């Protein structure tokens, strides 16, 4: 008996709720919108060769040694140059057919022999922008001009530089 | 119960046709919503760490650290047409964008407003839609597209 009356009460409440909703049905109109985004592959830059000035015999006068992007060398007057030379080279991978810009972060660097002796190098690249290939590949080279001091101390000199490649 | 009765009374007072008990909307000019412009998050360079792109309903994209927003973004635009002084609620459903190569992105659209009081006349009431896009680490490249549903609710 008690159970029954509780059930009846529940039904009344439900009916009431149903009526309350049917008085004001919520209506909705809808539309569909499209969203798009083009995701480009994260660019990777890998060094494929170091900029190498080869071997140099200094003289009593300061002079320069220049390495071009085609690996060729111009040896300053008074200096003797020999050994293999290479331009700096980098491989770029990104999204196919996209244009990227290339920059040398620090175009003026200093090579040191690990001690107190140093030489200045000016870096340059003719590639300021390029379009990646159909497979997303690209490459560029870095030329350099080394300033050899008068009677530059003997030793192995090295230094580092950084490049940046970004989508345009 | 008392609260519910009160709500019903308020609803009734707003109703243009208080005597209508039917479920179907029989009014002549029920509000409609039309899509006018698609959302574009533009071009984004992915990163190895992933991140989010947030497009404001005013059409400005912001990328979190690592991602590079490269431009070309624009907000979505919708028009609501309906009777004067109707109040409508705007609800957006999330979308999954795919690049046709099995990769997907989750987009959460966000409207410039959640409610709107209508002015009379065709296409007089507009709202814009931005959203948030989540990129996974090393998200595969591609042109991603997808659809989202816009629902305009009214009483």
From TrEMBL, chain A:
Protein name: DUF4402 domain-containing protein
Superkingdom classification of source: Bacteria
Organism: Sphingobium terrigena
Keywords: Signal
Pfam families: DUF4402 (PF14352)
InterPro entries: DUF4402
Secretion signal span: 1-28
